[in-house]
Design brief:
The longest helix has 19 residues, at 177-195. This protein is globular. Helix 1 (40-53) crosses helix 2 (88-96) and helix 3 (105-116) packs across helix 8. The strands form four sheets. Strands 1, 2, 3, 4, 5 and 8 form a six-stranded mixed β-sheet that branches. By secondary structure, the protein is of the alpha/beta class. It folds into two domains: 2-107 and 231-242, 2-Layer Sandwich (Nucleotidyltransferase, domain 5); 122-226, Nucleotidyltransferase, domain 5 (2-Layer Sandwich). It has helices at 40-53, 88-96, 105-116, 161-165, 167-172, 177-195, 210-213, 232-242, and strands spanning 2-8, 12-19, 24-25, 30-33, 60-64, 68-69, 72-73, 100-104, 125-131, 135-141, 144-146, 155-156, 159-160, 199-203, 223-225. 33% of the residues lie in helices and 26% in strands. Bound molecules: beta-D-glucopyranose.
Length: 244
């Protein structure tokens, strides 16, 4: 099925039509700035602009940087707080005239990587982290998704994992790769002790720079970069909508 995949991130909103059977990107991806403040009305306008650009009439999947439970936004760590309680599927479907389905961005990226990318064919317990403005987590047990895990918000070193080891924090504190890689290693070690995963996949913006920090990840569990990198979110969002 052809579905328009959209990834709503802290700084950019990216989109492209996707063949959900092959995960192929069918037209050049576009990126629009995330409006600030990222209120529901402003983001809906930007998504409408994207749909108009592709002259899209079919289904749309949106990877959303928050917990989305049955179409309703439940948290807002890195987006405008007025999103909490909004029925995002309804809002965006009304605004655009298309059938829109939203899913947590990390869960979207995880689905794309597990079925078409770095995790393809992996059974067991696979944990994928999207590391960017925030830290998103997704969990698969024998190919089945456990949605909205939000382990980036787990308390760690008097902070949360997200506040300690996100890519935004690396930039804000101007940490070098060794220092930041060390922080990520501590966070992954903590997850390792809690969940004993069989594989970690690192996605989000940070996955493109894995060569810079891989040597500081000293874990018992294998750690590999996402293959679809920054496209995983929009591919997975399209896959999610195709099943609705
Ligand atoms: C949000 C998650 C999201 C992650 C990555 C976190 O702050 O709580 O829902 O997956 O950022 O965008």
């Amino acid at each position: 099925m052809e579905v328009l995949g959209i990834d709503f991130g802290g700084t950019g909103i990216k989109g492209a039509p996707i063949d959900t059977t092959t995960a192929e990107i069918l037209q050049e991806r576009i990126r629009l700035e995330t409006p600030q403040p990222s209120t529901p009305e402003a983001v809906a306008d930007t998504i409408k602009q994207m749909i108009d650009h592709f002259q899209w009439k079919g289904k749309v999947g949106v990877g959303f940087p928050a917990v989305v439970q049955n179409g309703v936004v439940k948290t807002a760590a890195n987006i405008d707080k007025s999103w909490i309680g909004v029925h995002v599927d309804q809002l965006l479907s009304l605004k655009t005239g298309c059938e829109v389905h939203a899913v947590n961005d990390a869960d979207a990226a995880g689905m794309a990587e597990l079925y078409h990318g770095a995790g393809k064919g992996n059974g067991g317990i696979v944990m994928l982290l999207t590391i960017g403005t925030g830290i998103g987590t997704t969990f698969f047990v024998n190919g089945e998704l456990f949605p909205n895990t939000e382990l980036g918000h787990i308390q760690f070193n008097k902070e949360t994992v997200e506040k300690y080891a996100s890519d935004a924090m690396r930039k804000k504190l101007d940490l070098n790769w060794k220092k930041w890689g060390g922080r990520l290693n501590e966070a992954l070690t903590y997850y390792e002790q809690l969940f004993y995963p069989d594989l970690f996949i690192i996605g989000g913006g940070a996955s493109k720079r894995m060569d810079k920090f891989q040597e500081y990840l000293i874990l018992k569990t294998p750690v590999i970069p996402a293959q679809l990198q920054n496209n995983a979110g929009l591919i997975g969002a399209a896959m999610f909508a195709s099943k609705k």
